[in-house]
Amino acid sequence: MNEQKIFSVSELNAYIKALLDGEPLLSGLYIRGEISNYKAHSSGHHYMTLKDENGVLRAVMFRSDAYRLKFRPENGMKVLAHGRVAVFARDGQYQLYIDELIPDGVGALYVAFEQLKAQLSAEGLFAPEHKRAIPRYPARIAVVTSPTGAAIRDMLRILGKRYPLARVRIYPVRVQGPEAPAEICEGIAFVNHYRLADVLIVGRGGGSIEDLWAFNDERVAHAIYRSEIPVISAVGHEPDVTISDFVADLRAATPSNAAELAVPDRVELLARLHASEAQMLQAERHRLEAGRQHVKALAEKRVLQSPLNYIQDRRMLFEHVRERLISAAGRAVSEKKEKFVRLTAFLDAMSPLKVLSRGYSVAMRENGQIVKKADELEAGERLNIRFSQGGALCRVEETRPDRRAT
Amino acid sequence: MTFEQALSRLDEIVKQLERGDVPLEVSLQLFEEGTQLVKKCSSALDRAEQKVTILQKGENGEVTEQIFQGGGEDAV
Fold first, then answer.
1. Chain B CB contacts of A288 below 8 Å
2. I need a surface site. Which of A27, A187, A382, B27 has the fewest CB within 10 A?
3. Contacts of residue B13 in chain A, CB cutoff 8 Å?
4. How far A203 CA lies from chain B's nearest CA (Å)?
């Protein structure tokens, strides 16, 4: 029998552990596999095995790394796991300690996309009531995108052709890769903070779903939601659709489409201006023509046509009325005059003096009472008789009353 | 007056003139104002040159703005 060292279990495990720990490759690597036996512990740690057709690998993701997960791991999901491989001595197993887990392959990405979409929709980020209207005539436009590439070139060309009045500001960002979401958020926040634009375009040119992935990032979604400046999202080409497209106030199918949506077309505006001018001209023409007609109609009225005739007519009428007035007045006066003369004559005839001058006399008793009846007198009574001229004091010899019954 | 305000005033004037409910001298004044606005807006659209700038972050984090070279109108 050879002299062979006899190892204890712990010693062997430690040996293997040291072996693995000393291997630089195993200190940080990417592994591709499919999740199975997945369990999310109440502790916050995630346990799973990664497998492919030929084997399995135990894996764990501690809570300190798992909180960054942007999707819910599920059995059957194909993933890329980054981490280190080390021995867990207690179990006599080596396992992968995952620090980063990302969906691998298009299918997995779509699942992550659908999960986030459902989550943000439930949070209300896509609510139509929250969407702002894009201003019709923006004076300033901000674009958060890559400063190189076809997307920005196309946008600037179309903006310049349609509506050069709008000032364009570019906030350059990376549009793919792990730093992209943070930079995009920063761009949106900066433009908002300094109120640099009336409308904001966020986007990039076409690419694979992985290329566009930054625009599915939850942070970007929230930044767009919080933006007080209306946001047009312009990510990729049809039929690419990203979370940003759902949150934005308006979705453009492509970056070029975003430029069309953001501004009016100057050709159309010029046509509208000329149409307005024509409308004003026509309205004024009508107005002036109507005015002219009115003046013409007035001019044709008789009073303006031959004013002298008109005045003459009026004068004749005036004279006619005057004469009637005068003769009426004259008649009235002479009538009154006649009446006056008659009355005067009548009065005159009634005057006592006139009566006396006709031969009548007035007899008065001594007390002044005028005698009207003979039987008022007594024989021997003294009477004053008044004649037209002078009078006499008389004594009654005899009274002679009338025999007629009174 | 911004471009947008000018357009909106022009619309107002056209409506008023078409309604015809202002006195003749006022309508002539409005017509004059309207024609001036059309001139101003048309020339703004014809003569405007697109202005594009790019924001750059310096090492200290301060942001500067420069004229954007490249990526502009394609040479025709």
1. 24
2. A382
3. 280
4. 15
A170/A187 Cα distance (integer angstroms): 9
Partner-chain contact B45 A160, CB within 8 Å: no
Rg (Cα) of chain B, in Å, rounded? 21
ipTM: 0.84
In chain A the first and final C-alpha atoms are separated, in Å, by 206
CA distance A237 to chain B (A): 19
| Beta bridge partners of residue A60, listed in sequence order | A47, A97
Q: Which residues contact A144 (CB under 8 A, 6 or more apart)?
A: A171, A173, A184, A187, A188, A191, A200, A201, A202, A203
CA distances from A157 to A47, A117, A261, B66, B74 (A): 52, 33, 14, 18, 7
- Give the Å distances, CA to CA, from A355 to A100, A306, A342, A361, A386: 157, 73, 18, 8, 12
Give all strands (DSSP E) within chain B, no chain letters.
Answer: 52-57, 63-67
Structure tokens at A109: 């990405």
DSSP letters of A224-272? HHH-SS-EEEEESSTT---HHHHHSSEE-SSHHHHHHHHS--HHHHHHH
Question: Do A135 and A230 contact (CB within 8 A), yes or no?
Answer: yes
The answer to whether B50 contacts A139, with C-beta atoms less than 8 Å apart, is: no
Query: Where do the DSSP E strands lie in A29-127?
Result: 29-40, 46-52, 55-61, 78-88, 93-103
- Between chains, do B53 and A170 touch, taking CB under 8 Å as contact? yes
Non-local CB neighbours of B32 within 8 Å, separated by 6+ positions = none
Q: Averaged in consecutive runs of 10 residues, what is the pLDDT profile of chain A (406 residues)? A: 82 93 93 94 93 95 89 88 92 93 76 87 94 94 95 95 95 94 96 96 90 94 97 89 95 95 94 93 87 83 73 85 88 87 84 83 89 88 90 91 69
Q: What pLDDT does A158 receive?
A: 96
Q: Could you read off the pLDDT tens digit of each residue along chain B, which spans 76 residues?
A: 889 999 999 999 999 988 888 888 888 899 999 999 999 999 999 888 999 999 988 878 788 898 988 644 443 3
How far is the C-alpha of B50 from the C-alpha of B40, rounded, in Å?
18
From CA A258, how far away is CA A142, in angstroms rounded? Answer: 12
Q: Which residue type is seen at A61?
A: M
CB atoms B49 and A164 under 8 Å: yes
Q: Which of B73, B74, B76 to mutate to test the interface with A (most CBs of A within 10 A)?
A: B73
The helix/strand count (H/E) of chain B reads as: 2, 2
Four-residue CA torsion sign, A112, A113, A115, A116: positive
Looking at chain B, which residue has its C-alpha nearest residue A169? B53
